[in-house]
Design goal:
The chain is built from 3 helices and 8 strands. It is mainly beta. The chain is globular and about 40 Å long. The protein binds a DNA duplex (13 and 13 nucleotides) through β3, β4 and α2.
Length: 182
DNA sequence: ACCGCGATGCCCT
DNA sequence: GGGCATCGCGGTA
């Protein structure tokens, strides 16, 4: 799911204005097994509740006292997995989107959108069939620890100047980690 | 390239 | 009370 989202457009409509950006960097969180996921161990709390619900909904959480982060709930009811939106190539008039907190700020996304269905109007994804190019996979950003889950390659991105962090140099050449053309 | 720090508030033990 | 799926800035190499 994370891989397939790359290259698609994330659209936010509010107050008669339409803001959008192209998805270029996302991460998969595979709870309940994933020790880095909020839903690790099947933790079902007020915060994680949305992830246990139907797919195609927004999971929006607040972190570090000032940032909202947007996720897409990806799995059937009862399976708390999601894809975190980490960076967009901004559309016209859209501010910097190089990081999950910047994405939500630029598109006007906050906790009021937690649990909303990802469909027009409001917040949705469209596929404009644009070529996507090479996909790189790396460990997830900001995930602490050295265990199996912390090291897993669950961050998916395309090479772009708008990433939250550049692709590691050793991955840049064509000889880099295997990637999948569309 | 890395490392530290402050801002700032919720989440969970 | 400690940690956090962050960001921007400044410091040391």
């Amino acid at each position: 799911m994370a891989r397939d989202l790359l290259g698609k457009l994330l659209v936010r409509e509010s107050d008669g204005q339409r803001l959008w950006g192209r998805l270029i960097e996302v991460e998969a969180y595979l709870g309940p097994d994933d020790l880095a996921a909020h839903s690790k161990g099947g933790r079902r709390t007020a915060r994680t509740e949305v992830m246990f619900g139907a797919p195609g909904h927004a999971y929006v959480y607040f972190t570090y006292g000032m940032h909202w982060c947007l996720n897409f709930v990806t799995r059937e009811e009862g399976v708390p997995q999601a894809v975190l939106v980490r960076a967009l190539e901004p559309g016209p008039g859209v501010g910097r989107c190089g990081g999950p907190g910047l994405v939500t700020r630029a598109l006007g996304i906050d906790g009021a959108l937690n649990g909303v269905p990802l469909r027009p109007p409001g917040l949705y994804v469209v596929d404009d069939q644009a070529p996507r190019g090479r996909v790189y996979v790396t460990p997830r950003i900001g995930v602490q620890g050295t265990g199996r889950w912390e090291k897993r390659l669950l961050r998916y991105c395309v090479d772009s100047p708008y990433l939250s962090r550049p692709i590691p140099k050793r991955l840049r050449p064509a000889a880099g980690r295997r990637v999948e053309p569309r």
